[in-house]
Design goal:
Blueprint: H1 8-19, H2 33-51, H3 58-78, E1 86-87, E2 90-91, H4 99-109, E3 112-113, E4 124-125, H5 126-133, H6 145-153, E5 158-165, E6 169-177, E7 184-192, H7 218-228, H8 249-252, H9 262-272
Parallel strand pairs: 1-3, 2-4
Antiparallel strand pairs: 5-6, 6-7
Helix pairs in contact: 3-4
Length: 274
């Protein structure tokens, strides 16, 4: 298999998509006249670019560059230089590249999108793709279309937590699905700059606060401590102690039992100073 390190332009694009709305080209009846005009101008430019053989948009150019590099690696490694004619592209559930965006990329690199033939299966997102990659949510008899339709119809429903951890970020998705080709996203997030590379940049975090009704849970504290042990200072770990011993004197007053009212108390402190 082939693996590419993300280039700065690609990482910046994914970060922009992750921070922005899931609908990358929002337009509705409530949009202003100028918004609609800009949208129509963009649509016209997109079609013109495709007609003369250019990437449909600047975003298309960045995504197509990644796909082309992967295509070259696969062709050199597995096909002895023969062209890869078809492919499937998945994107993170929080980003959700649209069918048009994916089609623009594949049209530019001259690859057929297998999700659209022989019939349209919609888009494939990362959680469903990973679910299938681990051997779940798809039929065993894939050569007989009628057999796999019957088999997938009776696959048991699943509720899945998918966590993706890289050098550049941390993402998570909770999804309810029967097969890898369906599913409803309950929650999805992407933490920019929370990847493994962040562990090696900068000093340890000197202070940690917890709030919430369940923040006092021993199990929760132990989990957070395990996850953040290499990121925060020893004194900051005091708030995560569950045995009540060896807590530094400076932190005893700060660590209270009722995490529930810390935010309200702070708001009251601010109010007193107005």
């Amino acid at each position: 298999m082939a693996h590419l390190e993300g280039q700065p332009a690609f990482i910046a694009l994914m970060q922009r998509f992750a921070k922005g709305p899931q609908d990358h080209c929002p337009i509705d009846d409530a949009a202003s006249y100028w918004d609609k005009l800009r949208y129509l101008k963009g649509r016209t430019q997109r079609r013109l670019n495709k007609a003369i053989g250019r990437p449909a948009t600047p975003e298309t150019a960045i995504l197509a560059d990644v796909v082309e590099k992967l295509q070259v690696q696969v062709e050199d490694t597995f096909t002895e230089g023969n062209k890869v004619p078809t492919a499937v592209l998945s994107s993170p559930d929080r980003i959700r590249l649209t069918e048009e965006e994916i089609s623009d990329v594949f049209d530019y690199v001259k690859i057929t999108n297998l999700m659209c033939i022989p019939d349209d299966l919609g888009n494939l997102y990362a959680t469903s793709a990973a679910f299938a990659g681990f051997g779940f949510g798809h039929c065993r008899n894939y050569t007989d279309p009628y057999a796999w339709e019957r088999e997938e119809r009776y696959l048991p429903p699943q509720r899945l937590l998918h966590i993706d951890f890289t050098l550049d970020g941390l993402s998570g998705t909770i999804k309810s699905l029967n097969s890898a080709r369906d599913g409803l996203v309950d929650e999805a997030f992407i933490g920019i700059n929370l990847g493994l590379g962040w562990l090696f940049r900068g000093p340890r975090i000197p202070q940690l606060i917890l709030t919430g009704y369940s923040a006092e849970s021993k199990r929760f504290k132990e989990t957070v401590k395990d996850a953040l042990y290499d990121l925060i200072s020893a004194t900051a770990l005091d708030v995560l102690r569950t045995d009540g011993t060896d807590i530094s004197a400076d932190n005893k007053e700060r660590i209270a039992d009722d995490f529930l009212f810390a935010t309200a108390r702070g708001a009251a402190e601010i109010a007193k100073r107005r």
